[in-house]
Each structure stands twice: as C-alpha cells, then as structure tokens.
Inverse folding.
C-alpha cells in the first residue's frame, strides 16, 4: 500500500465524519429545517450506496476471493461476508436504545421546547445520541476507508454518500444538547466529536489491513462493506427520508443517486 493512497483514504473518511458538524451547524444556525432537502439528500445517498454496493463493491470482493478460493469457494465466501456485514451492523444498531437512535428524525423546530420541557432528559438524550452516532460511525469509517483504499473513485462516492447520511445525525445530537444547555458551542462540540469515530474506524482499518492485507482479506472486507452499506440504506436512510415527509422526493433522490453513481462508474471504463 502506497502512503499516498492511505492518506487519500483517510482524508475522504475524515470528510465523511466531519459532516456531522455540518448537520450541527444547520441545526444551530437555521430557523427552519429544510425537510425537502434532507429527504432528497437521504434518498440520493441511499441510491449511491445501494448501486455501488451491488454493482461494484460486492463484485470486486467476490473477484478477489475467487482468485484465492476458486469460483465456487470464492462465490460462497463473498455471499457469507456480505451477510456477515449485514449481521454486524444490525447487531450494533439493535444495541442502541430506540429513543437515543441517531436515525430518529429531529428538526430545528424542536429547540422551541414545545416538544420537551425536561432539560435533564434532553441532555441525557443528546449525550446518548452522540454515543450512538459514534458507535454507528465506527464501522462506517472502516467501510469508507477500505473502499477508498481499494478504488479512490469508489471511495469518493462512498464518502459522499456517508457524509449525506451524517448530516441528520449532527442535527440529532445538536438539537437536544442545545435546548438542554442553551450553549451552541457545547452542542456543536459534542456533535463534532461524535463524527470523529469515523476517522477512528479508518485508523483501525489501516492497522488491521497493514498486517493482513491479502487478496482474501481484501475480498472478505469488501463484501462485508457491501452488506453494511445495504443495511444502512434500507434500515436507516430510506426510512429517515420518508419520515421527513417527502416520500416521492426520497424515491426521486434514490433514482438520481443510482443514475449518478452509474454514470460516474461508466466514465472510468
């Protein structure tokens, strides 16, 4: 692995993690939540992630495993790794209480206090949401890093999709913390720190891959990453997009995301 490739992979993962700060800034500076934008953006992100997972990442993972294990063994291993990725992120997701789940819909309008008056409860929710975001972002950081390490163009697409998905998470952390403390600085800081688990995941991925970077390891991780991204899209992004109340926009964003991803991949043939 060339150092420049590793540096690029880490940089795009850091960019994706910093998007929680963008969400926090939107929540703290805006007076009204743009539900249409969030619905379209989340659908767009899901479209990119679904298309690239099935068309590119899983295919590349399977190809690497076939070179080591043969056609039959490599194909079975790729399928197993794909569902292992789904199982892993599903377990992580289910360990987080639903009330503190970062993918529960939150809006800027909640800051007026009409929906919640107990500040200690709000602060608890904000802290647990920040922790939940950190837990969710860790495997996403590994996924983004591995994708960028294997294919820089692919890594950029994955990082952008993850970044779009992190914006509402920043809102989910900032809204309750701001209302509980009255401090925009504390709300932004906590949201920003929760996103830093993404590059932390990249660092773990780097140290693991540095020692065990083989065709078999690359193939297994790539196939598992595809599973993680499919789960995120179907269980988190699309439901959140619909919860923001713009069903047709979310589906439109999904199709546009797929088309953009397909076009970008065709340009590199």
């Amino acid at each position: 692995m060339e150092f420049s490739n590793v540096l690029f992979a880490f940089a795009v993962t850091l960019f994706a993690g910093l998007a929680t700060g963008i969400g926090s800034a939107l929540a703290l500076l805006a007076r009204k939540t743009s539900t249409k934008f969030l619905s379209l953006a989340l659908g767009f992100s899901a479209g990119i992630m679904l298309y690239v997972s099935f068309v590119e990442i899983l295919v590349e993972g399977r190809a690497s495993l076939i070179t080591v294990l043969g056609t039959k063994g490599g194909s079975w291993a790729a399928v197993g790794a794909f569902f292992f990725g789904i199982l892993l992120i599903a377990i992580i997701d289910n360990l987080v209480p639903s009330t503190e789940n970062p993918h529960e819909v939150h809006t800027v309008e909640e800051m007026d206090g009409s929906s919640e008056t107990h500040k200690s409860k709000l602060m608890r929710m904000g802290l647990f949401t920040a922790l939940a975001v950190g837990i969710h972002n860790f495997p996403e950081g590994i996924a983004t890093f591995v994708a960028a390490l294997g294919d820089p163009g692919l890594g950029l697409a994955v990082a952008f999709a993850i970044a779009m998905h992190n914006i509402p998470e920043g809102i989910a952390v900032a809204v309750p913390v701001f209302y509980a403390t009255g401090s925009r600085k504390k709300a932004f800081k906590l949201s920003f720190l929760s996103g830093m688990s993404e590059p932390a995941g990249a660092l773990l991925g780097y140290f693991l891959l540095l020692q065990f970077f083989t065709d078999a390891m690359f193939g297994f991780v790539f196939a598992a990453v595809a599973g993680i991204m499919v789960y995120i899209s179907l269980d988190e992004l699309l439901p959140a997009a619909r919860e923001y109340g713009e069903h047709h926009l979310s589906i439109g964003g999904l199709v546009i995301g797929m088309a953009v991803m397909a076009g970008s991949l065709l340009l590199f043939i």
